[in-house]
Amino acid sequence: VISSNKPGATVSPQELAAEGTDYSACLPFAEKPVPELKGKEQVTPAQLLDYLVLVVTEASTRQFDSCQAIFFPGATGSEAIDKVGAILDGVLANLQEALHRTLDGLLLKGDKSVAFELLQVIESRRDQLGGEIPALEATLGALEARTAEAGREFIRAELNAIHDFRATAKRRSGVFPYVVIFPVSLI
Amino acid sequence: MMGQEIQQLAAINNEMDTQARNQRELLAELDKILGRLALPDEALVLLERAPLDKPEILPAIQQAASLLYEILGAKLERGIREIRGVAERLAFVESSAAKFESRLVGSLRGIILGAGQPTRLNRKGRLERMKLGALAAVDQMLLPYAPMVAFLGAKAPQCFLDLRLAYEGEARKIVTAELLEIIEAAKQGHLIRRDPADKAYRTSIGWCVCSPL
Asked: What is the pLDDT of residue A85?
């Protein structure tokens, strides 16, 4: 889940600041971290996944402080991280599942080539947040594994399509269709 | 002969005097111990009857609770707890503590379970962040009770766990409902699929996903 009870497994900017790292410039922790899209503004599946990761990160950051103030007002440092992290695990328990369902039922539905865009988003967020927030790393890791599998399925299907494709020099006109749709990142 | 009897009587008298003195000292010591274990009436009334939903009374209740747990945590010499008067006094204080804990947990659970349904985000076609308004309202109401919740954590772990699980359950419902609402809003009004024919397509991050052939 998004926040585990491992030491350091928090998304609280306070705790991160205590470790000597200034994360105020980091998108999820800024004053207004997640933009709100107006009506008719559109997002691609990759942008939506990125948006959802930020929304969840921001919500868990806010909730960390509330849970600490109510349940463990005297706890500090790794003790607070352990104890509050365990409560946050319970509060956010359904979110990883919700993200997985969204990935399978919405983002990867139909065109599987979108998996490569999603992978890039996940890797980018893992680089940005995962190293300092192990729990987010775990969530993104699980999403990455599922997305990578979808990407492999896409490549297998493409390779099979290329293998089965029969073209003759006489009838050929224009580029081969699989060249048009093959993601450039694979070439 | 006579002198011997007088000596025996004197010895018995001395023994009885010592016993009486010991008895008196024991009683005085016992009174002291019982005094340490006595919960003042006003504290008892606060813990057992004072309304827990009035923030202005909470500091007094907290002080009474502090006294109560101080008594329960008192260190007593070996064997003292077995003295009937002490055992009765401790049993009384323990029962007061149990009543208070049950009343407190009931009241806090009431606040948590009264969180209400997650309010719908004010969309108007927008894709918003999680507001978690219902949860923030519960947090705000629970905050003044934080010192007493800490008492529960230290002195009544089972009550604390019940409270924590109730909080997690309600908070989970609110957080999940809002995330699902955001996903649904995105699905209905914002999500577009990449058009494979759009060869110039670029994501906002700026990498090319389609062959520009």
From this structure: 78
Tracing tokens 């008067």 back to the chain, one arrives at B85
Coil, helix or strand for A185?
helix
- Phi and psi for A43 in degrees, rounded to 5? -125, 145
Residue B147 CB-density burial (10 A; 0-12 exposed, 13-18 middle, 19+ buried)? middle
Distance from CA of A92 to the nearest CA of B (A): 6
Say how far apart CA A28 and CA A61 lie, in whole Å: 9
pTM above 0.90, yes or no: no
Interior CA angle at B88 toward B86 and B90, to 5°? 70
Write out the DSSP string of B93-107: HHHHHHHHHHHHHHH
Angstrom distance (rounded) from CA A102 to CA A107: 6
Tens-digit pLDDT profile for residues B85-108: 888 888 888 899 999 999 999 989
DSSP for residue A130: I
Q: What is the DSSP string of A25-81?
A: TSGGGSSS-S--BPTT--B-HHHHHHHHHHHHHHHHHHHHHHHHHHH-TT--HHHHH
Residues B2-37: tens digit of each pLDDT = 788 888 888 888 888 888 898 898 888 888 888 888
Q: How far is CA B152 from CA A69, B37, B91, B101, B141, in A?
A: 15, 20, 19, 7, 17
Q: How far apart are CA B20 and CA B40, in angstroms?
A: 31
DSSP 8-state assignment for residue A127: I
A chain contacts of residue B143, beta-carbon cutoff 8 Å: 69-70
**What is the phi/psi pair of residue B27, to 5°?**
-65, -40
Instruction: Give the gap in angstroms from C-alpha A128 to the nearest C-alpha of chain B.
Output: 14
A185·B209 Cβ contact <8 A? yes
CA gap A166, A99 in Å, rounded: 40
CA dihedral B159, B165, B169, B172 (to 10 degrees): 130
Tell me how far apart the alpha carbons of residues B130 and B150 are, in angstroms, rounded to a whole number. 29
Give the position of tokens 């260190």: B75
